[in-house]
Specification:
Shape: globular
Number of helices: 12
Number of strands: 16
Number of domains: 2
CATH class of the largest domain: Alpha Beta
Bound molecules: pyridoxal-5'-phosphate
CATH architecture of the largest domain: Alpha-Beta Barrel
Helix content: 25-40%
CATH superfamily of the largest domain: Alanine racemase
Largest sheet: 8 strands, mixed
Strand content: 15-25%
Order of helices and strands: EHEHEHEHEHHEEHEHEHEEHHEEEEEH
Structural class: alpha/beta
Radius of gyration: 22 Å
Distance between the termini: 34 Å
Length: 381
């Protein structure tokens, strides 16, 4: 069907853009010899897993359900890391996954009996997450695993120059939407503080986490490829990366309809049939202003509006936007770059329906992947 026939609000993932990202990631894999995993926390639209699995090596999960989704739908490796594994979920995690990363030595030991048993029955790799305590960005602390007081990863002074028995990999994650240089800087710091681990014969692989904006136009891909080759030669390690955003950057939109335009004390407010809080919560949490197709900054074009949700939350506002033409009730507004950290974070607060999920093929044909309704709201309560 054509996109215009789908009832708003809907997320639509563009195959062309997804493939564009995947081709870049595949080139990085092939030229550097690293393995790249889809970090499912950013993008878990599993109907696309058969395509993604042709380009990437596997997935990384941050919880039981993501690990299970990968087990059911993704042809490839299944890595999992959780800040702490629940006792009741852990045995199944051992069955589903091939790489398990522990956040602390106490978690590693608490679950040792279970993972050692699984390891005796199948190929299972055990890693530990380290905390480099090296801040590469001055982001909101909410997004910085190296911020003081962070619970993520084992700090260097906790190790006693001993790698626990059974561990054969290291994981770190400390970047967020960054280019190559911060990765380089953090790795030099890791070499200084954890170099003895990198050199140990016991360690066979390293996972550089996510936050690498590899598919962004200005990313220094050549330096990344050379850097990975260097790690492989210098330390004889298999290198993994687990980007989420880089897989889905700019690969989707949230299409909405203008339901009303109300006069506020300062300017006209557009009310759309979607919600920042329910359908793109990062807009409120991070916070940031999501781009709208063909719209400019406040005052840049002739007609400026505040764009807001139909929910009752006063702060459920997308931001200020300007347009060449006056907006009319019934017009469509498309929020761009909405594939990542959107569908995975939706909720039904205010009794709001979840947006339909659609997939636009290369040939322009649009398929509805899933529609939601009252039952989806009710079944969670
Ligand atoms: C452990 C871990 N790996 C991978 C990612 C994916 O990061 P991104 O989507 O920024 O590439 C995250 C994001 O928070 C993470 O915490």
């Amino acid at each position: 069907m054509i996109e215009g026939m789908i009832k708003t609000p809907f997320f639509v993932v563009d195959e062309e853009k997804l493939l564009y990202n995947l081709r870049i990631l595949k080139t990085v894999r092939e030229k550097s010899g690293c393995k790249i995993l889809l970090s499912q926390k950013a993008f878990s639209m599993y109907s696309t897993y058969p395509i993604i699995s042709k380009y990437l090596d596997g997935t990384s999960a941050s919880g039981y359900c993501e690990a299970k989704l990968s087990d059911e739908y993704f042809e490839g490796e299944n890595h999992v890391y959780e800040a702490a594994f629940s006792d009741d979920e852990f045995p199944e995690i051992c069955q589903m996954c091939d790489h398990i990363v522990f956040n602390s030595l106490s978690q590693l030991e608490r679950h040792r009996e279970v993972w050692e048993l699984a390891k005796s029955e199948k190929e299972l790799h055990i890693g530990i997450r380290i905390n480099p305590e090296f801040r590469t960005h001055e982001l909101n602390e909410v997004y910085d695993p190296c911020a003081p007081g962070s619970r993520f990863g084992i700090r260097k002074d906790i190790f006693n120059n001993m790698i626990p028995e059974g561990v054969d990999g290291i994981h770190f994650h400390a970047l967020c939407e960054q280019n190559f240089e911060p990765l380089h800087n953090i790795f030099r710091n890791i070499e200084t503080n954890f170099g003895w681990m990198l050199k140990s014969d016991q360690i066979k692989w390293i996972n550089l986490g996510g936050g690498h904006h590899i598919t962004r136009d200005d990313y220094d891909i050549i330096s990344l490829i050379n850097f990975i080759r260097e790690i492989k030669v210098k330390y004889h390690l298999d290198v993994y990366m687990e980007p989420g955003e880089a897989v889905a950057i700019d690969a989707g939109r949230l299409v909405t309809t203008v339901l009303d335009i109300v006069e506020a004390s300062d300017m006209n407010v557009i009310i759309v049939d979607a919600s920042a809080s329910c359908h793109m919560p990062d807009v409120v949490e991070m916070p940031y202003r999501p781009p709208i197709k063909n719209a400019g900054e406040k005052g840049e074009k002739k007609y400026t509006y505040r764009v807001a949700s139909k929910s009752c939350l006063a702060g459920d506002v997308m931001g200020f936007y300007s347009f060449d033409n006056e907006i009319q009730i019934g017009d469509k507004l498309e929020f761009e770059d909405m594939a990542m950290y959107s569908m995975v974070k939706t909720n039904t607060f205010n009794g709001m329906k979840l947006p339909t999920i659609a997939y636009k093929k290369m040939n322009g044909d649009c398929q509805i992947v899933k529609e939601f309704g009252y039952e989806d709201f009710k079944s969670r309560l």
